[in-house]
Amino acid sequence: MAAVNPPWAMLAELTHACPLRCPYCSNPTELTARSRELDTAAWVRIFAEAGALGVRHAHLSGGEPLLRRDLPELVAAASGAGIYTQLVTSGLGLTGRRLAGLTAAGLRSVQLSVQAADAATSDRIAGRRSFDAKREAAAVIRASGLPLGLNVVLHRHNLDAIDAIIALGVDWGAERIELANTQFYGWGLTNRRALLPTRDQLTRARERVEHWRGRTRAELIWVVPDHFEGVAKPCMGGWGAVSLTVAPDGRVLPCPAAYGLPLELPHALEHPLSWIWSESPAFNAYRGTDWMPEPCAGCPRKEIDFGGCRCQAHALTGDAARTDPACSLAPDHRLITALATEPAAEEFVYRAHADRIG
Ligand code: SF4
Ligand code: FES
């Protein structure tokens, strides 16, 4: 087996529990119950192994990671292993005192999710009142001196307000605003017809983002949409290339959406992370380019997009090894163009009580 470069980044899904019920949630439809979550000692060991393996950046995510009372210990463990830690949060439950404890433990930055620029739309998308808490959380983060990033998932119901969303981010003091068009995985797939934007919405929003670039000190990141561009997107820099995900129960995934793939996912309590990264069948299944069928195998872009998303290929064609139908060269591309013309649904389907799972 060829030598494998070490991972650089890690997504630590500390819990799937969450006070919000966003219809675009990319976590799986079957969430991990709280009773099955890893305990503190297991996460401490995983962060130590990750640091030794080469991981330098961790997103502490969920669900809502603030629901873990042991979060300061987990931050300290990651930080002690030489890993830069970023908290990815809805902001609910983030007090100045809580953040001071996390900062003292070594937390380096915070990414706050925002659903829309006005309270009514934001609360409708989030499935509960939360906008005011987010504004307060942003103020707490700014007061702490930690860098603040905003993460906004874009879709049919907020793309037309892109100017107001960017203005809100600037007003709240964000240094970075990630404008991420919805990716249709996990629960988000359930709501695809309610979330899928029109091509016109996307075109206008992209123009507005370009307009703002250079006119604000905030860095603007536009994550291109699925389904419309005719191009496949590289997942996490390539399968098993730079990043790994650890699920709340200790399963380790090459990609955060790989729960639904027909793979035997290795478990961090059963194998060393180094073996999982370098040798496990799951991490080698679509690593590199040798596994690729045509047209990817002979394509000049194969080391740029790595044949696109395995999850999307599997969801749409039943075969995770086929070329991602998002690519206009894919034999199955018609499956994507058909989706983009599906009639819209008006109502969101919300998860039931993700804050109270198991
Ligand atoms: Fe990417 Fe494969 Fe499409 Fe080429 S054929 S652009 S490698 S998905
Ligand atoms: Fe990573 Fe699909 S989202 S391969």
TrEMBL record:
Residues 4-218 form the Radical SAM core domain. Keywords: 4Fe-4S, Iron, Iron-sulfur, Metal-binding, Oxidoreductase, PQQ biosynthesis, S-adenosyl-L-methionine. SMART domains: Elp3. Binds 1 [4Fe-4S] cluster. The cluster is coordinated with 3 cysteines and an exchangeable S-adenosyl-L-methionine. [4Fe-4S] cluster binds at residues 18, 22, 25. Pathway: Cofactor biosynthesis; pyrroloquinoline quinone biosynthesis. Its cofactor is [4Fe-4S] cluster. Catalyzes the cross-linking of a glutamate residue and a tyrosine residue in the PqqA protein as part of the biosynthesis of pyrroloquinoline quinone (PQQ). Belongs to the radical SAM superfamily. PqqE family. Interacts with PqqD. The interaction is necessary for activity of PqqE. This is PqqA peptide cyclase. The gene is pqqE.
